[in-house]
Amino acid sequence: MRAGIPQGGKILPVLYPLYVNDIPKTHKTLLGMYADDTAILAKNKDHKYTAAALNQHLVKLDDWFLKWKIALNVNKTEAVYFAKGRRKHKPIASQ
């Protein structure tokens, strides 16, 4: 059985804000949402702090996804790290 609202559905602008109203937020990250895309943003000079903040938020989101039976499309999910200079860091999220 499939769940969700058809793309372009006329009722989507009304239902979507209600659907994501209780999405977890934290004080260490910023949640940016546009249409059905979501970005989790964190900023700090220490990349370990940033990684920890993002991972903590991802854990909360994972619990929320399970609660509402939402399947995250891994093929449409990306992690992007921006830094000044050319530093190389290990990936921040593990599977």
Helix content: 25-40%
Structural class: alpha+beta
Adjacency order of strands in the biggest sheet:
1-2
Strand count:
2
Give the percentage of residues in beta strands: 5-15%
Elements, N to C (H/E): HEEH
**Count of discrete alpha- or pi-helical segments spanning 4 or more residues:** 2
Average pLDDT figure: 82
Give start-end ranges of low-pLDDT stretches: none
Kindly report how far apart the N and C termini lie.
26 Å
Note the overall shape. elongated
Give a quick account of the main beta sheet: strands, pairing sense, barrel closure.
Answer: 2 strands, antiparallel
What value does the Rg take, in angstroms? 15 Å
Which secondary structure elements does this structure contain, and how are they paired or packed?
Layout: H1 12-19, E1 30-34, E2 37-41, H2 47-67
Protein name: Reverse transcriptase domain-containing protein
Organism: Araneus ventricosus (Orbweaver spider)
Domain Reverse transcriptase: 1-95
Describe this structure in words.
- The chain has 95 residues and is of the alpha+beta class.
- Helix content is 31%, strand content 11%.
- The protein is built from two helices and two strands.
- The radius of gyration is 15 Å and the shape is elongated.
- The relative contact order is 0.13.
- The model has no long low-confidence stretch (mean pLDDT 82).
